[in-house]
Amino acid sequence: MARKKEKNKSNKIRSEPTSNVGFFLRADTHDMLASGYTRLSENPEVIMGISRIADLVSNMTIQLMENTEHGDVRVKNELARKIDINPYSGMTRKNLIYWLVKVLLLNGDGNAVLYPKYKDGILMDLVPLPPSKITFLEQGFDYRVMYNGQMYDSDEVVHFSMNPDEEKPWLGTGLRIPMKDVLTNLKQAAKTKKGFMSSEYLPSLVVSVDSDAQELADEENRDSYEEKYLKRKGAGKPWIIPEGMVKVEQIKPLSLKDLAISESIDIDKRTVAGLIGVPAFFLGVGEFKRDEYNNFIDSKIMSIAQVIQQTLTKSLLISPTLYFRCNPRSLYNYDISTLGALGLNFANSGNATGNEARNLVGFDPLPELNELKALENFIPVSELGNQKKLNGGDKTNEN
User: What is the rounded distance in angstroms from the CA atom of residue 60 to the CA atom of residue 301?
Assistant: First the structure.
């Protein structure tokens, strides 16, 4: 059952207070900001990697599970539907979890908060609170959360945190990684590429004219020479140039490869991918590898999923036998033939029903396939011990 909050009976969130805030910057800090400082949330490579993480985590269904004597079983009730379909009236579960993961990894600095609204002990909504309006205040061995000037105890909100702070274990921390130089390099490479591709100082021809520098300093005079000698009415016609008066040379301008920008970008993107924890091919570097992708699901994605499912269980449930679980099965990269062979193997060995095997490949269930059967003549598992060959055979035929 859902947890009912008693302390905050009004269940109201106050409006945002107004305040005037100023900042004093040291000279070195000002120089860094003024010279083009880019936050993690504004870097294209970081956004690309974190968006892929948020998209994958939000694709997992959130299931309500119950511990039983014969193993854990899925519970399907209104609470399970609320959390997995529409935890917040203004968003679906997909969008809410996507927002939650991006806040955890970017602007929330390792923290994200949902406010649970109850009515008669029933969970009605999980309201997402913008991270810019939240402050965490230490209080003895516990902490409180201030939102828009209103204080909440730690058990009155659903507080997700990752990478616990060493001094305040209840507080999460964001990406504490040395990415400043890497992001600066990527930003400068993008500027160089843009300026290089749009530069007007990349002509493919250089024309030397027998004239003095003063005369050619005038743009009109240069246009006059171009109109007189270098332009023809018909496309593809050869130029007719006076001998000794005009000299034409074809040059090969420097390319991005000559400047080694592409190799530098690849190295920096791989570094960013490694620091964020995503495969490099998510950022457009290298080729897709199935084993690397599946290992990414098992490690990075499931690590964030553990934070989400354990926080929801701790904050919303009071039953000791119930818990929430994020199901990653649909995220793994397996072709349909592999899944079909797996389902067939389970069904033939009596470890899964035919419908469970069909579900692996997305087929609709059939009424006659709800029974466990084994490969031996495909009889029900419960009848395996009643075979005649296990009970002395058919004595009538022997006589």
Answer: 10
Closest of 60, 52, 62 to residue 126, by C-alpha: 62
| Token duo for residue 235 | 């496309």
How long a stretch of residues is the chain? Answer: 399
pTM to 2 decimal places: 0.68
Q: What is the mean pLDDT of residues 295-311?
A: 94
What was the pLDDT predicted at 22?
46
Confidence (pLDDT) at 396: 55
What is the Cα–Cα distance from 93 to 302, expressed in whole angstroms?
17
Q: Pick the residue with more confidence: 176 or 50?
A: 50
Instruction: Give the least confident one: 35-39, 173-177, 223-227, 269-273.
Output: 35-39
Summarize pLDDT for 151-180 with one digit per residue, the tens: 999 999 999 999 999 999 999 998 765 556
Choose among 341, 338, 349: nearest CA to 375: 349
Residue for token pair 């067939």: 344
Check whether 47 has a pLDDT greater than 50.
Answer: yes
Asked if residues 94 and 85 have their Cβ atoms less than 8 Å apart, the reply is no
Residue 28 pLDDT exceeds 70: no
Please report the pLDDT score of residue 329 as a whole number: 85
Over the chain, what HEC string results? CECCCCCCCCCCCCCCCCCCCCCCCCHHHHHHHHCCCCCHHHCHHHHHHHHHHHHHHHHCEEEEEEEECCEEEEECCHHHHHHHCCCECCECHHHHHHHHHHHHHCCCCCEEEEEEEEECCEEEEEEEECHHHEEEEEECCEEEEEECCEEEEHHHCEEEECCECCCCCCCECCCCCCCHHHHHHHHHHHHHHHHHHHCCCCCCEEEEECCCHHHHCCHHHHHHHHHHHHCCCCCCCCCCCCCCCEEEEECCCCCCCCCCHHHHHHHHHHHHHHHHCCCHHHHCCCCCCHHHHHHHHHHHHHHHHHHHHHHHHHHHECCCCEEEEEECHHHCCCCHHHHHHHHHHHHHECCCCHHHHHHHCCCCCCHHHCCCEECCCCCEHHHHHHCHHHCCCCHHHHC
